[in-house]
TrEMBL record:
Family recorded in the similarity comment: Belongs to the TIKI family.
Official protein name in the record: Metalloprotease TIKI
Species name: Brachypteracias leptosomus
Keyword rRNA-binding: no
Gene responsible for this protein: Trabd2b_0
Keywords, alphabetical: Cell membrane, Glycoprotein, Hydrolase, Membrane, Metal-binding, Metalloprotease, Protease, Signal, Transmembrane, Transmembrane helix, Wnt signaling pathway
Function: Metalloprotease that acts as a negative regulator of the Wnt signaling pathway by mediating the cleavage of the N-terminal residues of a subset of Wnt proteins. Following cleavage, Wnt proteins become oxidized and form large disulfide-bond oligomers, leading to their inactivation.
EC numbers: 3.4.-.-
Signal peptide positions (record): none
Record-level GO cellular component terms: organelle membrane; plasma membrane
Length: 189
């Protein structure tokens, strides 16, 4: 039963109370039914909501996009071993071929085209740092493609908070997200 689920909601006892709730970056529809009522009630009752990043801010989104790029005009082909680069390119060609078959009728009904979706996810992949390409490739599965267009839990909650006129903010800056990942060396990636 939903009421019996572990909520992963921590309460900071003060007046008014503060809550800490860990979210994950998956389409909210995959997890929404499993979020216990006490977590949903805490969200409803809160007047301010702070997220890891402000995913509704265009500067955050552009900052995330630019931090993923290789420096000095480098290309992935310059930094990956030749055979790995070829395997990656073949895999992305396969994904591009399969994408139309993976899309849902609902996605097509909203005017979403496979080429557009591929470019939205993987566009400019040859200019990205290996760690970001790895994360991108991990999200290029049939299941993930079928959920495209559905906001991740963080974004859904941020959109709901804005709709409900709650004060919103972020606890991290883009640099705090990017620098640790960009600091990984090639063997770690």
């Amino acid at each position: 039963q939903q009421g019996e689920l572990n909520s992963f909601l921590w309460t900071i006892r003060r007046d008014p109370p503060a809550y800490l709730f860990g979210t994950i970056h998956v389409p909210y529809t995959r997890v929404w039914d499993f979020i216990p009522n006490n977590s949903k009630a805490a969200f409803q009752a809160s007047s301010s909501v702070y997220f890891e990043l402000d995913l509704t801010d265009p500067y955050t989104i552009s900052g995330l996009a630019s931090c993923q790029m290789l420096p000095h005009g480098e290309n992935l082909q310059d930094v990956l071993p030749r055979e790995l680069y070829r395997r990656l390119k073949r895999h992305l060609d396969y994904i591009k071929l399969m994408l139309p078959h993976w899309m849902t009728p609902d996605q097509r009904g909203k005017g979403l085209y496979a080429d557009y979706l591929f470019n939205a996810i993987a566009g400019n992949w040859e200019r990205k740092r290996p760690v970001w390409v790895m994360l991108m490739v991990n999200s290029l599965t049939e299941t993930d493609i079928r959920s495209r267009g559905v906001p991740v839990l963080d974004l859904y909650l941020a959109q709901e908070a804005e709709r409900m006129k709650k004060r919103t903010g972020a606890v991290e800056r883009v640099e705090e997200q990017c620098h640790p990942l960009n600091g990984l060396n090639f063997s770690q990636v």
